[in-house]
Amino acid sequence: MQPFAALDGALLIDKPSGPTSHDVVAAVRRQFRLPKVGHCGTLDPNATGLLVLVLGRGTKLSEKLMADDKLYAGRIQFGVSTDSHDADGEITATLPVPLLTLDELNGLAAEFVGDHMQTPPMVSAVKKDGVPLYKLARKGVEVQREPRLVHIYRFRFSSYADSVGHFELACTKGTYVRSVAHELGQKVGCGAHLAALRRVSSGKFNVANALPLDAVLKLTTAELEKRVIPFLKLAAGNSG
Prior knowledge:
- This protein has helices at 21-32, 62-66, 102-110, 133-138, 177-188, 213-216, 221-227, 231-235, and strands at 9-15, 37-39, 48-55, 70-78, 80-82, 91-94, 114-118, 127-128, 131-132, 148-161, 164-171, 192-202, 205-206, 211-212, 229-230.
- The protein is α+β, with helices and mostly antiparallel strands.
- Strands 1, 2, 3, 4, 7, 10, 11, 12, 13, 14 and 15 form an 11-stranded mixed sheet that branches. A two-stranded antiparallel ribbon has the order 5-6.
- The model has no long low-confidence stretch (mean pLDDT 91).
């Protein structure tokens, strides 16, 4: 087996709001002229936070790393529903928000903890016959989606005021937090959407150890090498 190169491994990026996860991959590949770059878990364009990139032979570990549990923080806006269940979508309904205390909200959030059959939203990267659902949604086409089993370890609000709740949610891979926001809005009876989302961690990786995308793109190749978590550490389950 050939020895591993300095850029065979993982790179932790703090994704800004705006670009897609694919945009981030393309920017790093182009800037450093890397033939193979991938990512371990899509973040929606408006979402921020930890995006784990795999470089070179590190891409062989993408499935392993993608399977890690995730921790998110964000805001949910109650009283306003959208077709995408987040702030990117078109508003579909606006309803008055009932009086709600933080304790009552956390009582409802606790009902989501545990195994949960979740149907992917139409505006998502899940594919139907090889076509991403979001492309079908743009054409006004809605198709049957298979529910998927996800697990929510923790869902709790730290504050609630002016119809906006700040929360933290720990879950398995593949969980659509915006679908959770939508379903919670239905439980409250006024609708809701995910106003903001930030991925805090994925497995042993934390956004505190990530660099913003613009800072990464200013690195020299030698500086980038120092930021890459080597393949052998990843394979051994060591993120340090």
